């Protein structure tokens, strides 16, 4: 199993350009998440999905859109990139996202990240 | 508002030393606490998850403890190795919701 993969690994954008980050998981997980990680800020949740066809806002959703058309894929879109969106973006997935049984089903599996620089 | 703090921000130790990483949280009403490892340029890997009803969890050379009343968790690493060099993050689930509150991490360097 490849686990969670992210495409691309690195991207440079100019202000106002658009792009889509792709996350794919082959573990048949229901839940998927997009985070951004910034120095001194810790990880922050952008959007998440509780299943195919569903999406929900996290802590910092402004400026981003997401789609979960297929269970294994979770796309993060930037319609008009801004320098404030320069960050490292991580995708994660989990079987569950609340306490079920032993709780191990909550464990989130992370992708390797996408480094985005917006000039 | 739940806040998670990790001290120290960075730690350098010689190989073989036993060490403790600290995580504190401001609201004791947590659902669970998790420890993750992040290697440079890579994603995060879950190490241990402690439910609020538990006091500790162990995996190999790692032992995580939880004291809700004092708002603290520690990650104990026994007989540290250079391969343990990474950033260790803790995250708290505040209630049965989908939100994790993250610390900024402790950057650990284990020197041969």
Which structural traits does this protein have?
heterodimer; A: about 120 residues; seven-stranded mixed beta sheet; four-stranded antiparallel beta sheet; globular; B: about 110 residues; mainly beta; 11 strands
Low-confidence spans of chain B: none
Oligomer: heterodimer
Structural class of chain A: mainly beta
Average pLDDT score of chain B:
92
Number of helices of chain B: 0
Range of helix content of chain A: under 10%
Count of beta strands of chain A:
11
What does this structure look like?
The complex is a heterodimer of chains A (about 120) and B (about 110). With about 120 residues, chain A is mainly β. Helices cover about 0% and strands about 50% of the residues of chain A. Chain A has strands at about 5, 10-15, 20-25, 30-40, 40-50, 55, 65, 75-80, 85-95, 110, 115-119. Chain B has no helices and eleven strands. Chain B has strands spanning about 5, 10-15, 20-25, 30-40, 45-50, 55-60, 60-65, 70-75, 85-95, 100, 105-110. In chain B, the strands form two sheets. In chain B, strands 2, 4, 5, 9, 10 and 11 form a six-stranded mixed beta sheet that branches. A five-stranded antiparallel beta sheet of chain B has the order 1-3-8-7-6, with no helix packed on it. In chain B, strand 7 and strand 8 form a beta hairpin. The radius of gyration of chain B is 13 Å and the shape is globular. The mean pLDDT of chain B is about 90.
């Amino acid at each position: 199993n490849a686990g969670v993969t992210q495409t691309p690994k690195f991207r440079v954008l100019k202000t106002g350009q658009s792009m889509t980050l792709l996350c794919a998981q082959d573990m048949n997980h229901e839940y998927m998440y997009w985070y951004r990680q910034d120095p001194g800020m810790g990880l922050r949740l952008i959007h998440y999905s509780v299943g195919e066809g569903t999406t929900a806002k996290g802590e910092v959703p402004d400026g981003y859109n997401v789609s979960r058309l297929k269970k294994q894929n979770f796309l993060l879109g930037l319609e008009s990139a801004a320098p404030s969106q320069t960050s490292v973006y991580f995708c994660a997935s989990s079987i569950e996202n609340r306490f079920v049984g032993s709780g191990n089903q909550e464990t989130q599996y992370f992708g390797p990240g996408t480094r985005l620089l917006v000039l | 508002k739940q806040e998670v703090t990790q001290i120290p921000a960075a730690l350098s130790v010689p190989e073989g030393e036993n060490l403790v990483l600290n995580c504190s949280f401001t609201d004791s009403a947590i659902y669970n606490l998790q420890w993750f490892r992040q290697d440079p340029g890579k994603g995060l890997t879950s190490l241990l998850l402690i439910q609020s009803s538990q006091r500790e969890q162990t995996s190999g050379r790692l032992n995580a403890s939880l004291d809700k009343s004092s708002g603290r968790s520690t990650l104990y690493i026994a007989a540290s190795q250079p391969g343990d060099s990474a950033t260790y993050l803790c995250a708290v689930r505040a209630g049965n919701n989908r939100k994790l509150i993250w610390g900024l991490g402790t950057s650990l360097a284990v020197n041969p």
